[in-house]
């Protein structure tokens, strides 16, 4: 069995996947398999992947499912991954030639208190996304990396598969296709650390149709998914600023969902009540910007 699974959720991204495929074929270490979760694509993804499987350059597993959104694809991936470690590389991203080798070296003899490792993303020009991880950190929680250590920008996480499988799946909401992935990461943070690795594991390219570029529309289209995430962020937030910000967003999401019961699912009701006026203003702002 291979040591690492690189998994890729994909929805109508046949035009982007060849870039990732090429980078995986070029890896200096082939001790991995590629798991593609086709989340209901209506393009040529299935045919394209079948042609790559015929080429047999790398080991590829392909799973098709009805469209559930990114988080639903993650659920399916975690159900099917059997390797010791896993990493998600999105359909519009790719890996440096040495990324798998770097990952496996960093994960070798990883202590039990570590859920995995944390590495860097760059853009195509080689510029670090955000900031590097402070060199003095030998263990860190993902949430604390941003809220306490003030690190900026997306980072790439490699998790132990056995640890990920211990936690609940992302919920699925009718007529919604998005739940922020950090829900799972927050739960893992409560029990484990991540080992920082200041090396590039992923090269990212944000797409115009990606969730990162359309966040206000996402807030409006998937309010229950965001409300669910906000409840956990309020509970586990390390600073008052972080908790209050998420309380504001919870209020806004509850109004979009027309489900005010979300406001009573947090363990900090006074904070949510205090955030109510600003949350209503945020809701009105999002409505205006996405009208």
The CATH topology of the largest domain, please? Answer: Spore Coat Polysaccharide Biosynthesis Protein SpsA, Chain A
Shape assignment: globular
> Which secondary-structure class do the elements indicate?
alpha/beta
CATH superfamily of the largest domain: Spore Coat Polysaccharide Biosynthesis Protein SpsA, Chain A
Total E-strand runs? 7
Largest sheet: 7 strands, mixed
Strand order of the largest sheet: 3-2-1-4-6-5-7
Helix content: 40-55%
Task: State the low-pLDDT regions, or none.
Answer: none
By DSSP (H or I, 4+ residues per run), the number of helices equals 11
Distance between the termini: 51 Å
Give the amount of beta strand, in percent: 15-25%
CATH architecture of the largest domain: Alpha-Beta Complex
Radius of gyration: 19 Å
Q: What number is the mean pLDDT?
A: 95
- What order do the SSEs take from the amino end to the carboxyl end, as H and E? EHEHEHEHEHEHHEHHHH
CATH class division of the largest domain: Alpha Beta
Total number of distinct structural domains: 2
């Amino acid at each position: 069995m291979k040591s690492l699974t690189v998994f890729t959720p994909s929805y109508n991204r046949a035009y982007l996947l060849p870039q990732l495929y090429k980078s995986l074929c070029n890896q200096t270490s082939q001790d991995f398999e590629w798991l593609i979760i086709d989340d209901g694509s209506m393009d040529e993804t299935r045919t394209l992947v079948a042609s790559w499987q015929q080429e047999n350059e790398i080991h590829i597993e392909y799973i098709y499912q009805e469209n559930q959104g990114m988080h639903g694809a993650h659920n399916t991936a975690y159900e099917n991954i059997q390797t010791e470690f896993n990493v998600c590389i999105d359909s519009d991203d790719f890996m440096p030639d040495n990324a798998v080798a770097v990952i496996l070296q960093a994960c070798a003899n990883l202590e039990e208190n570590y859920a995995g490792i944390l590495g860097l993303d760059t853009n195509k020009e080689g510029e670090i996304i955000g900031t590097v991880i402070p060199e003095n950190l030998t263990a860190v929680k993902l949430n604390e990396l941003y809220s306490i250590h003030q690190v900026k920008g997306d980072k790439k996480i490699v998790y132990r598969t056995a640890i990920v499988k211990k936690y609940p799946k992302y919920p699925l909401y009718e007529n919604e296709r998005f739940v922020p992935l950090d829900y799972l990461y927050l739960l893992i943070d409560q029990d484990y650390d991540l080992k920082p690795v200041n090396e590039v594991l992923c090269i990212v390219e944000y797409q115009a149709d990606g969730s990162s570029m359309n966040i206000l529309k996402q807030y409006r289209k998937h309010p229950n998914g965001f409300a669910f995430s906000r409840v956990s962020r309020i509970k586990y937030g390390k600073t008052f600023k972080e908790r209050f910000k998420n309380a504001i967003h919870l209020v806004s999401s509850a109004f979009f969902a027309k489900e005010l019961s979300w406001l009573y699912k947090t363990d900090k009701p006074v904070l949510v009540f205090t955030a109510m006026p600003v949350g209503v203003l945020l809701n009105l702002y999002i409505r205006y910007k996405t009208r």
